[in-house]
Amino acid sequence: MTRRLITHLRHVDLAVPDLRTQQDFFTTTWGLTVEHSDSGLTFLAAEGSPEQYVVRLRESADKRIDLISFGAKDRADVDTLAGDLARDGVQLVHEPTDLQTPGGGYGFRFFDNEGRTIEVSSDVAVRQHRAIEAGESIPVRLSHVVVNSADPEGTVAFYDKHLSFALSDTLVHPRMGSMMWFLRTNAWHHSMAIARGPHASLHHASFELRGIDEYMRGTGRLLRQGVEKIWGPGRHLAGNNTFSYFLDPHGNTVEYTTELETVDEDTWHPHLYDFSNPEVSDQWGTANAMNEFVARKSFNDPDKGLFVAPPV
């Protein structure tokens, strides 16, 4: 296996027109904690995660993904990866430098093949965190991020070639061909997935809960509060994780999940799963059917931040 310099997913940063409403949703409703704040910026932590924050919100006229952040082992690996990308012609947003975001650290940013801003960092201070208690229906950590791509084959190839992401499984459809690719950066089945869509955008951000009971309690709590549910509750076949998808106030899909599969990377062989088989999307058969409504909501609005780095 090619030496992988990316260790894990750190955070996803979103720009939204109404910062106060979005922050209220992610804290009061979703269960994250405001760990740091600045003018027009909010950094939200998951109580069970050592990451300084798992979501950053920035107030902006344009709704967009500001960036997706991944971790590296140390400064040497950050420098190596930045040098490799530059030599391969990947456009860097900035060279490796000391970071000014909460927890500090050392990192750089670059544009992927479709123009998303990606950050890689090391030496970020560990946040004081705690074990989530039984029955506590708040996120433990950021599980994975899924993006829509108008060129999914090219995007999968980019993350394979330049970041050594490994393919875990692929969803295929008899009429539409390959639909979603699950990519891993460690033993978790996926930290990122690429979905075929009409444009580049956020498909969903997923948050791990403590267990099945906490996941169901969280799903029920959001339903009682009137948050719009898109799909679920159910259990996927690829990754074997549970799913409940909801819409945040700006139309981004966010997911509660638990029990994401870990794989033996030395022996794992990717599967091709036929998405037209209902048990592939939902082993339990408890979720509403995957249909055009669910798909349209997951397409989201076209990302307005492609090849435009966020100001902070």
UniProtKB/TrEMBL annotation:
Keywords: Dioxygenase, Oxidoreductase. One of its GO terms (molecular function) is dioxygenase activity. Residues 8-123, 141-259 form the VOC domain. Gene3D superfamilies: 2,3-Dihydroxybiphenyl 1,2-Dioxygenase, domain 1. The keyword Oxidoreductase applies. Coiled coil: none annotated. This is Catechol-2,3-dioxygenase.
